[in-house]
Amino acid sequence: MDHKADEKYGLLVNESVEVQDAPDSEYYSIPSSHRQSYQGSLTIRRLAYYVIPSCALLLLLRASYSSFFRPSCTYRVEADEHFLQSIAANDSLRVPLEAHIMSKCPDSKDCLRDLVVPAMEEVYDKVDFKLSYIGTYVISPPTAPMIPSILTQISFSIDSDDGVTCRHGQSECLGNILELCAADLYSDPKIYLGFTMCMTQKYEDIPSRDLAHDCALEHGVDFDKLNDCVSEEGKGMDLLEASVQRSIDKGVKYSCTVRLNETVRCIRDGGEWKDCDGGSSVQDLVKDVENMYKANYMRGV
Fold first, then answer.
1. Residue 135, phi then psi, degrees to nearest 5
2. 280 and which of 137, 222, 276, 290 could share a cystine (Cβ 3.0–4.6 Å)?
3. Which residue has the higher pLDDT, 290 or 18?
4. Strands 272-274 and 26-30
5. How far apart are CA 95 and CA 117, in angstroms?
6. What is the reported pTM?
7. Do 260 and 96 touch, CB atoms closer than 8 A?
8. CB under 8 Å to 178, separation ≥6 — which residues?
9. 124-145: per-residue pLDDT in tens?
């Protein structure tokens, strides 16, 4: 069969190129009229022969370049993380953050749910957090009443001579004691704040035994120890008195009042945010905490 050279592409082609198809060993001829298309296909394949290895080589060189410089970058990232962890471990840098609440107050529910808890999720390691309770402290020295076990029944008797009265009644005083006992038993805010938030979600039911039991189970609080704390003569009442007195000493009157670095940061009262000069959003509070935390570090606190 005659051959002729294609001067344009430098390829040797036939007038009619025969291609074998495997299944039936039949031969299919490419007509001369399709030669240009076939030549283009060959050219593309030939270019690919050179282009693909070249691209692979470039990728290899790029990977080698990146791996050569990556160790120093990785070292800097690891060093920064270690540096931040070492700072976070320094309790002296933590910013005081405190929420003053009443266990059966709807404003406390809004405050914890919409501001305090989500903010704590972001700045947990940068704050010294505390929950305090609001009530009326009677001047006469109190004698702690006997408190029946919450495993059997819920009853709580407080009169004006007992030292503390609660705005929403005796049931709120017991609810405050339940939450204070959780904080006394577990210093980690993740535990006692979680328990308190769980109770507050159904504040109308406080101090229901079932509610306390379910919230304790959900947040890893030993219910028997919680019950012992509440039932122990003088224990729960002492916690309540000290907490209420603290709120009085700080001049706090409204539930919920959030104080940051010993200053009122925001108040939730009557279903509204008040006195929130820096803003009432979670990110506003988080930003303030982070700025104060950095300032403590710069001052070498």
1. -165, -170
2. 276
3. 290
4. unpaired
5. 16
6. 0.66
7. yes
8. 103, 150, 199, 206, 207, 212, 226, 230
9. 999 999 999 999 976 554 444 4
Compute the distance between CA of residue 149 and CA of residue 225 in angstroms, rounded to an integer. 11
Per-residue CA distances from 144 to 176, 220, 230, 243, 249 (Å)? 15, 28, 12, 15, 21
Exposure string over 99-122, b if 16+ CB within 10 A, otherwise e: bbbbbbbbbbbbbbeebbbebbee
Q: What token pair was written down for 229?
A: 């704390």
Within its chain, how far is the Cα of 191 from the centroid? Answer: 14
Q: Say yes or no to pLDDT of 104 above 50.
A: yes
CA dihedral 100, 257, 266, 127 (to 10 degrees): -10
* Closest C-alpha to 156, from 206, 109, 83: 206
Q: Which two tokens stand for residue 245?
A: 């007195």
pLDDT band at 49; cut points 50, 70, 90:
low
pLDDT at residue 13 greater than cutoff 80: no
What is the spatial distance between Cα 265 and Cα 261, in angstroms, rounded to a whole number? Answer: 9
- 8 Å CB contact between 231 and 176: no
Q: Write a three-state SS string for 131-190.
A: EEECCEECCCCCCCCCCCCCCCCCCCCCCCCCCEECCCCHHHHHHHHHHHHHHHHCCCHH
Q: Which helix (H) or strand (E) holds 219?
A: none
Which residues are registered as beta bridge partners of 67? Answer: none
pLDDT of 15 > 60? The answer is no
What pLDDT score was predicted for residue 184? 97
